[in-house]
Amino acid sequence: MADSLSPGRRGNGGGKPNKDRTVAEIEKLARQRANRRKSAHEFKKKREHEIKMNEKKGRPGDVDFQRMIRRFRKRAMNPAQEHSASGMLKINVVVRKRPVSESEIARKDYDSVSCSNPCVYVHHCKLKVDGITKFLDNVNFQLDHAFNEFSDNQEVYEHTAKGLVNFAVDGGRATCFAYGQTGSGKTFTMAGVQGLAARDVFRLVNSSEHIDKGLEVYCAFFELYGGRCIDLLHDRRVCSIREDGKGRVQVEGLQEIIVSDEDELLQLIERGNGVRTTHATEMNSDSSRSHAICQIALRKLSSRAGSEPFGKLSLIDLAGSERGQDTKHHNRQRRGESAEINKSLLALKECVRALDSGSSHVPYRTSKLTMILKDSFSSNARTVMISCVSPVASSADHTLNTLRYADRIKEKAVRPLVQRPSITNGDLSDVSCSDSEFDSADGKEEESRDFDDEEEDSELSMARRSSPPPPTPDASEDKAKNRKQKQQQQARDLVQAKRLTTQLQRHTPAKASAASPAPPGSNYKQQQRRGRPTPRISPSPKYPNEASASETRSEHSSGSNVMHKLSSASSSSTSGSESSRKPPSSIQAPGSSSKAGRGSGVTKIQAPSSRRKQWEDPAKNPPKLREPLQSQNHSNVHNSKIGNKSSSNQREESPEVVNFHDVVAKLVDMEEDVLSAHMKTIQKNADLLTEEGVLLSKVQGSDVVDYDIEEYAERLDAIVSSKLKMFQDLHAKVTRFRKHLEMDGVAQKLVQD
Ligand SMILES: Nc1ncnc2c1ncn2[C@@H]1O[C@H](COP(=O)(O)OP(=O)(O)OP(=O)(O)O)[C@@H](O)[C@H]1O
């Protein structure tokens, strides 16, 4: 090849092998290319082998992610601990992971959840903004117990509901919930718990310790479906829920059945479960669409009819939770169902949290479910929440939602955890364990012993697919180096932009608190201070009800900027509490706490400088609120902003104050508008950046031979035009907003004068 390519050699005349520099270069490039092809070929072969091995082991699906998950389990997971005795916990929150099902295997879904008692790790499998590089976002939660796919119902029961049965027989109010995404194993778990509890109730009631109490066992089984209460043991008769004058919640028409032994109780439970309302949903072809409540009441023989039972055990299989996006193909009835389900789940969470924190106010009236469970939130109550999760990667968002729900309930008792770093496909140097290392731990086959180690180079090259070829050692070296640096910078910018977008998405008014709702009395920042890991926030929407609740909450937070100002300016005419003095301007990115070790820092969305000044110097200008925002009902927050204007207090205010209120009210709307436009712009820009990265890699990728430069230019043109328009629109909005801010300053001055 060299001979045919080097006419210079013949022209040299001396016959000495004095190769022309260009020819040598071409030869070198050809060699490098051949080497690249060879290693790419080897990588491909090994990957194919790994895919086959995975399939043989019954775990088809993305081979790279599965490898990263195995490495994480091997290298980065805390070792499992023994289950601790938890009989006396007021709230016991556990997680149960079910095995991967046949249908999931058939659609090549794979296990992406790891349980290592008491921790559970969700390996969120993601692509970087370049659209090629795979990485794991590992989110961990620590609950009271974590049960993996090998735990059976007996084991789960031993550490959850068993203590509740003892508690009920001792005269307490005990409640066990199974909560989770549809198809995550709630009914499976609760059926097991109900059976085992039925056995233990009779064992205990008839034991020498309790026989003197003369307890009789009664059972009622009903469901809450679409806001209606249906007696499952009496031909689905509809009952109504009322609160009597003494504050006792009664289910009118619900009939308890007295049972004399375990078999009878089991039959009733089976009968009730058999007639529950079920429908096919996107996630589960036989989804229970109702909350099923099995109440086992223990009454003394001597007690009067209609009196409160001595002890009560409620076993509740909650309806499957769904995200808003899962319901998009539902008809109106299904959507209504989902909204109702999510509303009651949110209410339940708030009540259990209130119980856990010992709050005197439990908002049980918020939903029928919580009304019925009123006495489960009393001081003489114990609760177990079993969070059921599906193990598969396609359900990671749901799993995170379920675990966040559990985490929020348990937040006061959960200890801080050190978050592990994400594992990236291109970041393998510190995670070098191989398949075989992992498998041999299980005593399984070792066919791919050193695959991973050899593969790392190939994976790195895969991760850098869009990088330029290696620099040449001649005069063009500097040029190539510069080019490489420039491209690396571009790639970093892309990643940075995406990261920023994700962080900001968490703080988009509607989403920020949807991802991490902060109910009254709880403080998100307190969590940060405690160093407790805040689970990563996925950008996907949460339960519709949480979204709506958090929208009002975000109204609270974004509106509070203005509320501070308004209150400080018109404090002379207000007589409200001054309890909320904290500057609400900066929102810390979830997971950005240094202790939590996640995220790269703190994202602050700062208020306009004129307002910041007031917060920075509260002594000079103490912000006053008419009523403490913390204690307001969320839905009242907006009303209070507007409503205050027309209160009797306000009617006597000067025209300047009234005008100021108008300006401020408008400012609140504009602020939200600008913030949301800004978020949208960033999101769109990040999407366009991703597209640009892919576009570039199609032209500049190391393995690209043919490309269409016209198509490239055309698409780039469209992207740039779209960006221009997008930024112009945002600019116009910001300009209008700034003008209004000036007006606001003038109005405030008038009021102060
Ligand atoms: N721990 C487990 N071991 C084996 N199989 C399980 C386990 N958990 C659940 N399953 C199986 O998974 C499927 C779905 O479980 P199940 O019906 O209990 O889900 P669900 O959460 O109650 O769903 P939905 O809320 O839609 O009613 C069932 O076929 C069940 O047998």
Secondary structure elements and their pairing?
Elements: H1 2-5, H2 7-12, H3 21-56, H4 63-75, E1 91-97, H5 102-106, E2 113-116, E3 119-127, E4 134-142, E5 145-147, H6 153-159, H7 161-169, E6 173-180, H8 186-205, E7 215-225, E8 228-231, E9 237-243, E10 249-252, E11 257-259, H9 262-274, E12 278-279, E13 287-288, E14 291-300, E15 311-317, H10 332-357, H11 368-372, E16 381-389, H12 396-410, E17 423-424, H13 435-441, H14 451-463, H15 477-506, H16 509-515, H17 524-530, H18 544-569, H19 609-616, H20 634-646, H21 648-651, H22 655-700, H23 709-752
Helix pairs in contact: 3-14, 6-8, 7-8, 8-9, 10-12, 15-22, 16-18, 18-20, 18-22, 22-23
The structure holds adenosine-5'-triphosphate.
Question: Can you offer a commentary on this structure?
Answer:
The chain is of the alpha+beta class and 753 residues long. Helix 6 packs across helix 8 and helix 22 runs antiparallel to helix 23. Among the domains are: 227 residues, Kinesin motor domain (Kinesin, 3-Layer(aba) Sandwich); 253 residues, no CATH class. Helix content is 48%, strand content 13%. 40% of the residues are buried. The strands form three sheets. Strands 1, 5, 6, 7, 8, 9, 10, 11, 14, 15 and 16 form an eleven-stranded mixed beta sheet that branches. The N terminus is likely disordered. Bound molecules: adenosine-5'-triphosphate. The site of adenosine-5'-triphosphate (ATP) has 16 residues, from helix 8 and strand 13.
Total count of strands: 17
Radius of gyration of CA atoms, rounded to a whole number: 31 Å
Fraction in beta strands: 5-15%
Main beta-sheet strand count, sense and barrel state: 11 strands, mixed
Cα end-to-end separation: 90 Å
- The best one-word shape is flat
Bound molecules: adenosine-5'-triphosphate
Structural classification: alpha+beta
Name the average pLDDT. Answer: 69
Q: Helix content range of the residues, please?
A: 40-55%
Number of helices: 23
Low-confidence stretches: 1-11, 412-475, 500-653
Pfam families: Kinesin (PF00225)
Subcellular location: Cytoplasm, Cytoskeleton
Biased composition (Basic and acidic residues): 17-30, 48-64, 613-627
Biased composition (Polar residues): 421-435, 547-561, 629-649
